[in-house]
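Example 3.2
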Amino acid sequence: MRDIGVSYPALATDVKAYIWNIMCQPVLLYGMDCMPLSNSGKQKLESTQGNLLKQSLGLNKLSHSSNLLKALNVNKIEVVIKRITACLLKHTFNVPSPVQQLCRHFMSLYATKGILIPGTLVCKIVQSGRLPIDCLFNGRSLEATHNA
């Protein structure tokens, strides 16, 4: 983060938050939309995010980060992973491919018989509390809910 100037003390806090949201958080979460992630893994990512933000702002590592995330308008890890997973499913359906056909099959199994295949994108969407069909046709389901 030092190399891109985020740790520079004179840089405004809102600019640091913007850089975090646009550049750093996506790098931290790259690939998490298609990987299974345990609750302890999510907690480690939350902790890492908080520590990195505190470090860039010159705050003590032991400071609480939940209020900091709200003040900086930074989404929690779980919220972002839900959003990018929903986006991945939507993008999968926009490109004709074997993956699209496979996801259609998994969605039809879920819609008609209530069957979820563990480890699939459809299963991950359902486990996150969303309906796969909403991810495809309802743009609001892809919006991030800040600090939910």
